[in-house]
Every structure is written in structure tokens, then in C-alpha cells.
Design goal:
With 161 residues, the protein is mainly α. The chain folds into two domains: 73 residues, no CATH class; 86 residues, AhpD-like. It is 82% helix and 0% strand. The protein contains seven helices and no strands.
Length: 161
């Protein structure tokens, strides 16, 4: 019985290893095809294959490109406002590449210089108060209660004006 088990185990291990390699090669081929398709689509859309896409891992680019298209396609937030949000965030990271990209994109979507300034100032204000509130270690639940009271007051006050 001992002599039968060893060849069976070796054969099982070989089959499992061969299957894993075959699956891996098949997946790599599928990933390569998806990469080529995404690269082609990007190039057709922009007339080039931008270096920031080139910097992304090949196996992950198809999924990243899909997300990029979906988030930049039709949605409930107007494209100009998306770019202004992106600019506000980029200004706080800070990321010179993103600041440039979102500023130019926002202007292409019709944003004025005043709207650009306001978006950056809004980002700065959020960061400022976040720093103050977090640094003071204000209790989150107390903050929520206090803010809800403030909001209720302002709503009621606006009804009388």
C-alpha cells in the first residue's frame, strides 16, 4: 500500500501544479488582452497614451481605466463641479500634477477664475477647521448634536426672513 500512495501523491501534486500554471498562463494572456484593449481605447480617446497610465501596473490598468471612465462619464454632479472638487482636494494633498489637471479641466468646462479661487479656498477652509476640531479632540457625537441644533436654528430663522 505504501508504494501505491507515493506515486498517487506525486501524480496529484503534478496535476495540481500543472493546472495552476495553466490557469496562471491563461489569466496572464487574458490580462494582456485586456491591457491592450484598454491602451487602445485610451489612445483613441486622447490621441496618445499618457505617461500616468503607463506608470500603472499593466494587470490593473483595465480596471483602473474602467473606473476612470465611469467616474468621468455622465453623473449627477456636473463635470465643471467635479473638476472644482478635484482641484479643492488636489490643493490640500497637495499634488502639482492634479492641481494643473483639474484647473485646466475646470476652465475647459467653463469655470471662471473666481470659481477656481473659491474651490481652492473651500478646500483650505475645510482643512483648517478639520485641523482645529481634530486637534482639540472634540467629541464626534457631541459635534453632531451641536451641529444639528445649529442647522435646525438656521432653517427656522430662514423661514421668518
Amino acid at each position: 500500500m505504501k508504494h501505491f500512495v507515493k506515486p498517487f501523491v506525486k501524480q496529484t501534486i503534478f496535476i495540481a501544479a500543472f493546472s495552476a500554471i495553466s490557469i496562471s498562463l491563461s489569466a496572464q494572456e487574458g490580462n494582456e488582452q485586456a491591457y491592450v484593449a484598454a491602451k487602445k481605447e485610451i489612445t483613441e480617446m486622447y490621441g496618445t497614451f499618457p505617461s500616468f497610465f503607463e506608470a500603472f501596473p499593466k494587470y490593473a490598468l483595465p480596471g483602473a481605466w474602467q473606473s476612470f471612465k465611469e467616474l468621468n462619464g455622465p453623473g449627477s454632479i456636473e463635470q465643471k463641479n467635479r473638476e472644482l472638487i478635484g482641484l479643492a482636494v488636489a490643493s490640500q494633498i497637495p499634488c502639482s500634477y492634479c492641481i494643473y489637471f483639474h484647473t485646466v479641466s475646470a476652465k475647459a468646462m467653463g469655470a471662471t477664475d473666481e470659481e477656481i479661487k473659491e474651490a481652492v479656498a473651500q478646500g483650505a477652509m475645510v482643512r483648517h477647521w478639520s485641523t482645529v476640531i481634530n486637534g482639540a479632540q472634540i467629541d464626534l457625537e457631541e459635534f453632531k448634536i451641536e451641529f444639528q441644533g445649529m442647522l435646525n436654528y438656521m432653517v427656522e430663522k430662514s423661514k421668518t426672513q
